[in-house]
Amino acid sequence: MTERLDLPVDAPAARPGPTTRARVREVTGGRVRDRRDDVATEEPLEIRIAAGGHTRTLAVTMRTPGADFELAAGFLSGEGLAGPGDIASIAYCTEEALPPEARHNTVTVRLNRRELPDSPALARNFVTTSACGVCGAAGLAALRDRLGEPPAAAGAFPPVPAELLYGLPDRLRAAQSIFGKTGGLHAAGLLTADGELLAVREDVGRHNAVDKIVGWALLGDRLPLASCLLMVSGRTSYEIMQKAVAAGLPMVCAVSAPSSLAVDLAREFGVTLVGFLRGERFNIYANPARVAPHADARPQRGMRAGPEGN
């Protein structure tokens, strides 16, 4: 069980942190001992959108607390509801109707406009989990209609040496401070084409980690990310690729495999998609011209795609 602190009814609730202490029974061989351990915190975050005196609940996502404003901004960016200059403010909700424990689990994003955007996203009532991402995400045709010209095709991106890619998983892992305590978080990292690590975010949900990266870029006026690449610690799903396309990323790299829809989306929008990036090997599923191989590398046909990933 996780530890709880009994508070008076009128006491302010503490903001949840990224880790929670839990009592565990450790069994090693024939030895048993009881101890306390850190586990990754998972709590709901309700994201509200406001404009012109109107407020709507947009989504509820299960996330690891931390960088909540970036998460909300990145989610709106991925759904086409906010871009550079569109966000006036983001704040935790403090209305008295909310129970104290919910006030740090509810954020309102106020837009610089007189009315709420007329978007199908506001009608879908998203419920997302830490595992699957958004239920009912828009299809390829809808994404084409919203984005128009593929953002990733708009800017020049120099070929990335294969040797640089080899080191990305270890660099991402070394930057995961919370994973080191819990062993239970995904991560997303943003890097330049020459390998400079710009930002790393962690979360129980791989899609949330990407939203936090995109939100960091949006709130810092760094979008589109046409000169950067994204590295993720797990597999590349349709949702992650959708967010990358919307942010203008020209390259996405992952430790594990992509889904078929992620591959379709990468090919459709000109994104270089790298999977099974482990040790000194990887697969390129779409647009390989952005990866510069070893000078002595020779293509070989008939090789297996790689082991089954998480």
TrEMBL record:
Which cellular component terms (GO) are annotated to the entry?
Answer: cytoplasm
Summarizing the function annotation, the protein's role is: Required for formate dehydrogenase (FDH) activity. Acts as a sulfur carrier protein that transfers sulfur from IscS to the molybdenum cofactor prior to its insertion into FDH.
Q: Does the keyword Cytoplasm apply?
A: yes
Name the keywords, alphabetized.
Answer: Cytoplasm, Molybdenum cofactor biosynthesis
Where are the annotated segments for Disordered? 1-34
Gene3D superfamilies associated with the record: 3.10.20.10, Cytidine Deaminase, domain 2 (3.40.140.10)
**Chief localization:** cytoplasm
State the family it belongs to: Belongs to the FdhD family.
Q: Which residues does the Swiss-Prot or TrEMBL record annotate as the active site? A: 132
Q: Where is composition skewed (Basic and acidic residues) in this entry?
A: 23-34
Residues at which Mo-bis(molybdopterin guanine dinucleotide) binds: 276-281
Q: What is this protein called?
A: Sulfur carrier protein FdhD
Top-rank lineage group of the source organism: Bacteria
Which locations, inside or outside the cell, does it occupy? Cytoplasm
Gene Ontology MF term list: sulfur carrier activity; sulfurtransferase activity
GO biological process, alphabetically ordered = Mo-molybdopterin cofactor biosynthetic process
Low complexity compositional bias, start-end: 11-21
Pfam families under this entry? FdhD-NarQ (PF02634)
Transmembrane portions of the chain? none
